[in-house]
Structure formats: C-alpha cells, structure tokens
Design goal:
The complex is a heterotrimer.
Chain A: H1 7-23, H2 26-35, H3 40-48, H4 67-80, H5 82-89, H6 95-101, H7 104-115, E1 121-124, E2 140-144, E3 147-158, E4 165-171, E5 183-189, E6 195-199, E7 211-222, E8 226-227, H8 233-269, E9 271-272, E10 275-276, H9 281-309, H10 315-340, H11 351-359, H12 368-379
Parallel strand pairs in A: 1-4
Antiparallel strand pairs in A: 2-3, 3-7, 4-5, 5-8, 6-7, 9-10
Chain B: E1 2-6, E2 9-11, E3 34-36, H1 38-54, E4 57-63, H2 69-78, E5 82-86, H3 96-107, E6 114-118, H4 129-137, E7 141-151, E8 154-160, E9 165-172, E10 175-179, H5 191-196, E11 204-205, E12 224-230, E13 239-240, H6 245-260
Chain C: E1 3-7, E2 10-11, E3 14-15, H1 18-33, E4 36-43, H2 47-54, E5 59-64, H3 73-87, E6 91-95, H4 98-111, E7 115-125, E8 128-135, E9 140-146, E10 152-156, E11 171-174, E12 186-193, E13 206-210, H5 220-230, E14 233-236, H6 238-242, E15 263-267, H7 273-276, E16 284-289, H8 296-299, E17 302-305, H9 308-321
Classes of the chains: A alpha+beta, B alpha/beta, C alpha/beta.
Chain lengths: ~375, ~260, ~325
C-alpha cells in the first residue's frame, strides 16, 4: 500500500497547477461564461503542452499515460476554475472509445488531431426518449453499399455545437434481442450533410461547455467509419463510462477543492464581531466537514482511476467515486457560498460559479441515482 | 555556450500564514507549498533561451534537501540538459557565503561561459549568493539583469536600477549574472518535457567532489549567525505625516521619488 | 576610535535619497556604539557631493577620478579595497539598492568581512553589532550576528530609517584613487529609460489609487492628470468601478487585481479588507483619508488625515514647480 504519487505524477500535478494559475484568468472566465463560449485559446495552449490526450499512446500524439494522470490534471484545472477546467476536461470526450476500439487509420487521423488541439470530440449516446437508459436507440445506422446512413436525434450532447467529430451510438440491427446487442458506434465528421446541432438552452452551470441537441438526417459516412465491432457499440460505451466516471469524479474533486480554498482564504481574512471568521467554532466545523469530504472523494477517485489503469475494471468503484465526489462537490460548494455569506452570492467572488458548476457532476455521465443502482446491483443481484 | 544555473527550493510564503517553530530557529514548513524560487525560474528560462539561440548546454544545480530534486526535475522538463545536486548534509544551515563556496567548486568542474542565479530568493532574500560566487570565482558579475545580448566573448546586459532606469553594461565572459524577474516570460512545463526527464539521472555530489573540505561550510563556518527569528510586532499603525498640505505633499513626493522608481 | 563608513549613492548628477537614511543609521551607531561616522564619496567631479555630505557627517572622504565617472563594481571595489585596508572601519553601510546589491556582497566576500544585506535595523546586541532582517515576505524578522572579523558590512532596506537632516560642518578629505589594473572586464555603456506600458496596474511601480472619496465622475480627470505628472498608473477601489467612473482593469482588491507596486498612494480609500488584500509585496503604502479612524491607516506605512483634494492640489502645485 502506498499513498504517495510517483515523482512523475507529482510533476504532472504541479505542471497542471502552474498552467492553470498562469492562464485561467478570473475576468476571462466570467466573460466566457456570460457568453457561453468555449475557452478556445486556453484549450489550444493546453494541447500544445500535452495536457489533452495524455492517455493516448505516443504513436497517436498522446503521452502514453493513464486515467490517473488525466484525473490529476483535470482536478488541478477545475480547482483553479470550475468552468474552464470542466470545458478542458471534456474537450476530448469519448475519444477513449476510438483509442480502444478504433482502427489504426481512425486513431492516426483523429487521436492525433484531438491531442494537438485541432479537433474536439463528442459522444452521442443520450436520446430524447431514453435519457440515461441506452439499452434501446431510436437513432439508426443502415448500411447502403459502401456507406452508413445515420438517422436520429441525440440530446444533452457535450461539445455538440463545437465538436469536429461525433461518436454516435446507433441501432444497426433493430431486430436484435435484446436491443442493445444490435447497437454499433459510427464516427461522423463535422461538415457531413444532414447534421444539425443546437444548444439545449441556457444552463445553470458549465456554461463554457456546449450541451446540444444533435440531429442526423440521412447523414452518409463511409462504411469504414464503424468504430469497433458491429453489434458491440453498447458494450464499448459501457466500458467507456467506467473510464469517464473516474474523470468526472476528478472534476468534482477539483471543483470542491477550489471552493474550499476560496472559503478558507475568506474565513481567515474576514473579521466579524471582532474576530476572524475562521476563529468561530461554527466556521471551523464547516471547514472540517468540507476537508474531510474532499479527501474521501479524492481517495475514492484516485483508487478508481488507479484500478482502471491496471486493467481492473470495477464499475462499482467508479460509480462510488463519481457518486460520492459529485455529492462532495455539491455539499462543499454550498458551504463555501455560505461561509462567504452575501459575498458568496456575488459572481466576482467565484464560489457561486463553483456551486453552479458542481451540480452537473451529480447529473451527467449517469445521474447519482444510476450510480447507486450500479453500486447496489453488485451487492443485490436481480432475481 | 555552457551555462550553469543555480536554483533554490523555497516555500511560497506570499499568500500563506508563516508560523515559527517552537524553538524560534526556523519556520513551520509542514503547511507550506515549496517550489522553485521565482527569480531562479526566470534564470532557468533565460539560460534555455540563450542555449536555443547560441547552442551549448544548460546545467542546473542546487544545494538543498533531498526534496530539492523536484525543482531540478522541473528545470529539466523546461529544457535544461543536465542537473546536479550537492549533498546537503555538510551545508546544513550554511549562510550565503557557504552556499557560494559550494557553487564555486561546482562551477570550476566544467568550462562554463556563464553562471546564472536568481537576483534573490523569496525566503531569506539576501540577494548575495550570485555576486559572492563571482567573487570566489574571480569572474566579473552583474546583478539585477533584465536583458542579455551575446557579443562573441562578451555580453551586453541591462541592469535594473530604480526609477524606471536601466544601465547597460558590457561584461567579459566567463561571468556571473543574477537575474531579475520580468526578464522573460518563463515557459510552462509540458507533459512532453516531464516524460522526457523521467529516467534522467540526477547525480548527487559530495563536498569532496567540489573541493570543499570538512568543516569549511555549514553552520559552524558561517560568517553570518542567526540569533533567532521572531514575528514582527503586530498592529503597526501608519506613521502619520502631519503639517500643511504643501508640506505633506513634499513628504509624499520624497517617498515616491525614493521608493517608487519615478524621478 | 573605530569608524562607520556610509557609501554615498549617486547617479546622473544627484545623491540618492537612500544615502541620507544610511546617514541616520550611522548617527545612531555613533551614539550607541561610539563609532565615528564618515561618508565615502566615489566618482568623477564629485566635489559638490562631498560639500553636501559635509553638512551631515563629521568627516567625508572623497575619491575623485575620471575613471570613476559611472558606477561599476570593478572600479569602485578597487577604491574601497584600498580605502578599507588603510582605514579599517568597523562597519561599512550602503543602501540595499541596485548600487548596494552590485557592490557590497562581493566586496565583503573578497575582504572576508561579513555582510548583512537588506537590513531593517542595525544596532548593538551584548556589545557586538547585530542586524535585523525581514524575511519570508516580511512575515518574520531575523536577528543576525557577525562572525568575528576585522570589520563588517551592512546594506539597509529603503525606508527603514528616516532621511537625516543636515547638522553641522564636517571635514572633507581626499583619498587617492589607486592605480588601475591592466584591463577592466566590464564597461559602462550608458543608461536606458524603460518605456511606460499600457494600462496594466499589476506591473506599475507607482500606483495612484482613488476611492469613494473622489465623489464624482468629473473629478476623475484631476486624478488622472496627477497620475500622469507623477508617472503613476491610476488605480482605484471597488466603488469607483461600480459607478463606472474607471474600467475594471484598474480595480485593486480581491475582486479586482492583485498589485505589488513599489509605492501605493491611496487617496480617499477607506481600506476595506477586500481592497487591502489586493495590495501585496514589500512596497510602501501611503494613505490619505479625511477620517482618522479609517481602517486604511492600519494597513498603510504612512498616513495623512486630510481631504484628498487638498493633497491632489498640493501635489500638482509641487510637481508644476519642478
């Protein structure tokens, strides 16, 4: 048992922290979030420095690292700024499916472009009629000669309006029983005729990340755009969720830590009734609760990522990490706003943004209820 | 151009609470974050830029506890070619003279053209290691350097003076320069850089390797001896400037002129 | 009797103010330790500086030579090595400035006479000289003693001592410049003014910050004009931005920018902690406010209880007279 990061991991964490400190500007963050804009310039720089696609193999432009190192980076990014951090954490969304199941050609073309800041990816799984349940898809892909023809609508698609490539979960065999055995993943590039994307609406948080409805009307792509095996799409996606849950958990840990830092700072400076806020026991207990939750969430997250990198796929553990880290993020950011009081409610003091950005971690990538189902399901088998 | 850069690992105390150890001989380090001294970071960047422009190699060196290796790895990841540590045990508690003596021994091991150091360190702030080192080496020096131009066997440097003024100095090589912040914009450490240095060996030299004999450095050999640390008296109120507006204005202008760097 | 030397710092025809702060320290040591103070003026055509110093200290030593026209370590150190060997002062003090930092530490190493740099105080401790230094971003004080040696050096942080006033008439004595070596290894090539940048309050060495006391938008140009003449960048506190009298880029504080100027001159700012928290670094903080109880006076180094407009007018008048 060893709870120490390796030297290289420490260096990576420090490098991410230095980059975030130097580049994530508070005023810029406030402006981007107001405009619903993706932090494009920062994203480019992050890619140049190797922070994106770190877990891709070196021959495809990556750094040959793992989910764990990825988690360290997104945690530091979100700690500095929940909005910019989340946008960067998600810019290569679902690319892991390509990395694990793509052909050599697909990987050469797309992974290198994603890692170097030339492409943003999106995973199109959720549908208006199915939500978190992806066992049956209305979106279809039908083989027509050398092409797939994709039809259907996906919703709540992360990066939907800014993505350059879409990894679309389609029903390729509607007759399959059960239905999910007839699903496949099709790669669709931006610019193909028949794609339309529109933001789902003004959001409470993660406003620098596009969340869109993406529809495909007879979109034709080459047959070679099938990712992985035909009929295995559902399984590929489930496997991806194990990985992405650990990363989302890391964003939650970072958001919680960032709010904690700011609240602690404030409590030490602010004086009320002749003493520092930090000297009141009520504040001290809040700080103790927050710090404890953050560390528990971090340990679960690190363990989930560490296991994943060692090939120990454990859906229960990644679900626990994502569920608990989300809960910690919401609880800690809530208390942070409370500690700052009236100032906490003002945009410029940042904690309210962390609060708003925290909530999504209990919703996307599987709601906390879905996570609990997964966790419970490992103890109580279905009869 | 062969360049040696002397770096130091220091605690970040700008935004942190600093508390004394119960014995009053040092500060509590447990809760502080450590990293490369800010001035040294600019020195490392400047050395790498000189190398990129004029060829040669950059070696970074430190005298400090084992954890200082983090700082050296960071410099390697930025683009330094080699790193070396001097075993800290015999230097423990050494004053800037002792540290400079060790660094001088190190600088003599190779034909360096240039030794760079931060103009000062964020912890003890002496601002003397660089020029003292130059004295021990017998090389010319310039402190508070804000630009470097190579002119063959010479360099032209700008030194930051007070009042928005710089002086230009031509200096023969080899030389020791201390670098002022703002001379450049230090690059971020990239993941590629970190990966490149992961298997890089950082040798640890013993005092004998750098020509320093037992007892020549360290607390007992110091020229400066600490009598202890204390917390500055709290609640210091402003010194009130009294008099007619014209008199007060003159005092304000005097202070601005002396401290503000504006003539 | 043992001597204390004050190294006179001058540049482009005038003595730098920090010299007179060192004079104050030398006088204190005369009282506390019985040291005999003397000023040391090195340069070319520096007779007028010696005349000036003679009005401050009992003795002024002048080394006047054309080769000493511009300060350089090499030339000054050659003079001082010679002078110190002959006169064996117990202590040599100089400002901790670009001049002192370049000259003193290396000279101390070469002469094996210990030097305490950036001292906020120098005095006697149990019969021996001791220095106080401010370390860890000013959060800790350290007391330092010197290992026994033939003599010592100290460089003094600006603002640690009040500048001295003239007192009496001292003697002036010339000291010959030692013969130069075969060749110098450094050469002074001139001075360069560093350009004033765009509005970036985080980089400005001098900030003129205005607060609620500015009262009205039509008073802003007055403050801007003063800032221009001072060579300062205009900054402000929250209320001024809230009223849109100045842009957000000029706001200092937790919700604005963090600044670390050499001088922060705050006019009509009350000193809410959110504002004060944005002012960092070792610079000097001067506050002008009508309210003697304003919290800004707890954070400032110097305070003036006065209507800010009276001070603005007085400063403008002084600057105009220059």
């Amino acid at each position: 048992m060893d709870f120490e990061l390796t030297k290289e991991q420490k260096d990576i964490k420090q490098a991410a922290s230095d980059f975030a400190e130097g580049e994530f500007d508070k005023d810029l963050a406030m402006q981007l979030e107001k405009e619903h804009a993706f932090p494009r310039a920062i994203w480019k720089k992050a890619c140049e420095l190797g922070f994106v696609g770190m877990h891709f193999p070196e021959e495809y432009g990556g750094q040959g690292l793992g989910v764990f190192e990825n988690a360290l980076v997104v945690e530091e990014f979100c700690r500095r700024d929940s909005g910019i951090g989340t946008a960067l954490a998600l810019c290569d969304f679902a690319s892991e499916i390509l990395m694990r199941h793509g052909t050599k050609g697909q990987k050469e073309r797309f992974l290198a472009a994603i890692a170097s800041g030339r492409m943003i990816s999106a995973g199109c799984f959720t549908e208006p009629n199915h939500g978190s349940d992806i066992t049956m898809m209305d979106t279809t892909a039908v083989r027509d000669g050398d092409e797939w023809v994709v039809n259907g609508t996906k919703t709540f698609i992360t990066n939907g309006c800014i993505a350059d490539c879409f990894i679309v979960l389609c029903q390729t065999d509607p007759a399959a029983k059960p239905g999910y055995r007839g699903q496949s993943l099709i790669l669709v590039e931006k610019g193909a005729a028949g794609i339309e994307a529109a933001e789902v609406g003004d959001k409470m948080g993660i406003r620098m990340t596009s969340t869109a409805e993406v529809s495909f009307a007879s979109v034709r792509v080459p047959a070679a755009n099938l990712i992985g095996e035909e009929g295995k799409g559902f399984y590929h996606v489930l496997e991806f969720f194990d990985e992405s849950r650990a990363e989302i958990a890391a964003t939650a840990v970072g958001i919680a830590q960032g709010a904690f830092d700011r609240a602690l700072d404030y409590a030490k400076q602010r004086e009320q009734f002749g003493q520092r806020l930090a000297d009141f026991q009520v504040t001290q207990h809040k700080i103790a609760d927050m710090a404890t939750m953050i560390d528990a969430a971090r340990l679960l997250t690190y363990r989930a990522a560490w296991n994943f990198d060692r090939g120990k796929i454990d859906p229960k553990l990644t679900s626990m990490a994502k569920y608990y880290a989300g809960r910690a993020a919401v609880a800690v950011t809530d208390e942070a706003v409370q500690i700052l009081g009236g100032y906490g409610y003002i945009l410029e003091y940042e904690v309210e943004r962390f609060y708003r950005d925290a909530k999504i971690t209990e919703i996307y990538e599987g709601t906390k209820e879905i996570q609990k189902n997964t966790i419970a399901g490992t103890f109580i088998k279905k009869k | 151009m062969e360049i040696l850069v002397c770096v130091k690992r220091v605690p970040d105390t700008a935004d942190a609470e600093v508390a004394l150890r119960p014995d009053g001989r040092g500060i509590r380090e447990e809760d502080l974050a450590f990293g490369i001294n800010e001035w040294d970071n600019y020195a490392v960047e400047e050395a790498i830029r000189l190398k990129e422009k004029h060829g040669g190699a950059v070696t970074v060196a430190t005298i400090g506890p084992a954890e200082s290796e983090d700082v050296l790895r960071r410099c390697l990841a930025m683009g330094a070619d080699d790193a070396v540590m001097i075993d800290e045990a015999s230097f423990r508690g050494a004053d800037p003279y002792g540290i400079a003596r060790g660094l001088a021994g190190l600088a003599r091991r190779k034909a360096y053209d240039l030794v760079l150091a931060g103009a000062l360190a964020g912890d003890d702030g002496y601002g003397m290691t660089g020029p003292v080192l130059a004295g021990y080496l017998g090389w010319p020096h310039a402190t508070l350097v804000t630009s470097i131009e190579v002119e063959g066997k010479k360099i032209a440097v700008a030194r930051e003076l007070e009042g928005g003024l710089e002086e230009i100095l031509a200096v023969e090589l080899p030389a020791v320069l201390t670098i002022q912040t703002g001379i450049n914009e230090p690059r971020y450490v990239s993941i590629m850089g970190i990966r490149k240095v992961r298997s890089k060996d950082i040798p640890v030299l013993a005092p004998a390797d750098i020509g320093v004999g037992a007892g020549e450095v360290g607390e007992n050999a110091n020229l400066l001896r600490s009598l202890g640390l204390s917390t500055p008296p709290a609640g210091a109120e402003a010194v009130m400037l009294k008099g007619a507006p014209a008199e007060v204005a003159q005092r304000i202008l005097d202070i601005v002129k002396e401290r503000g760097g504006v003539a | 009797m043992a001597k204390v030397f004050v190294l006179v710092e001058h540049r482009r025809g005038s003595i730098r103010e920090a010299t007179f702060e060192c004079v104050t320290l030398a006088r204190e040591l005369q009282t506390a330790a019985g040291l005999e103070p003397a000023a040391v003026v090195i340069g070319s055509g520096v007779a007028p500086f010696a005349e000036t110093l003679a009005a401050y200290l009992p003795e002024t030593i002048v080394v006047d030579d054309p080769s000493l026209e511009h300060f350089r370590f090499e030339t000054y150190a050659a003079v001082l090595r010679d002078l110190i060997e002959r006169e064996t002062p117990l202590l040599v003090i100089a400002p901790h400035s670009a001049f002192g930092m370049e000259l003193v530490p290396r000279l101390s190493a070469e002469l094996a006479r210990p030097c305490a740099t950036d001292c906020v105080a120098v005095g006697m401790d149990g019969g021996a000289l001791a220095a106080t230094r401010s370390v860890y971003n000013g959060k800790i004080d350290e007391r330092l003693a010197f290992a026994p040696a033939g003599g010592y050096f100290a460089t003094v942080r600006a603002g640690s001592y009040a500048p001295a006033d003239p007192a009496g008439t001292g003697a002036i004595r010339a000291h010959a410049c030692p013969a130069p070596p075969a060749a110098w290894r450094t050469e002074h090539r001139g001075y360069r003014e560093t350009a004033a940048g765009a509005v970036d309050i985080t980089q400005a060495p001098l900030l003129l910050a205005i607060g609620r006391g500015i009262k009205d938008a039509e008073n802003i140009p007055k403050a801007q004009a003063l800032a221009d003449r001072l060579g300062a960048v205009l900054a402000c506190s929250r209320p001024v931005v809230d009223k849109k009298w100045l842009g957000k880029e000029r706001q200092v504080g937790t919700s604005g920018r963090t600044v670390k100027p050499k001088v922060y001159l705050a006019l009509g700012i009350s000193g809410a902690f959110q504002h004060i928290a944005g002012i960092k670094g070792p610079g000097v903080f001067i506050a002008v406010n009508r309210d003697p109880k304003a919290p800004v006076f707890r954070a400032a180094d110097f305070g003036v209880v006065e209507d800010m407009f009276k001070i603005i007018d007085a400063l403008a008048e002084k600057l105009g007279a220059k």
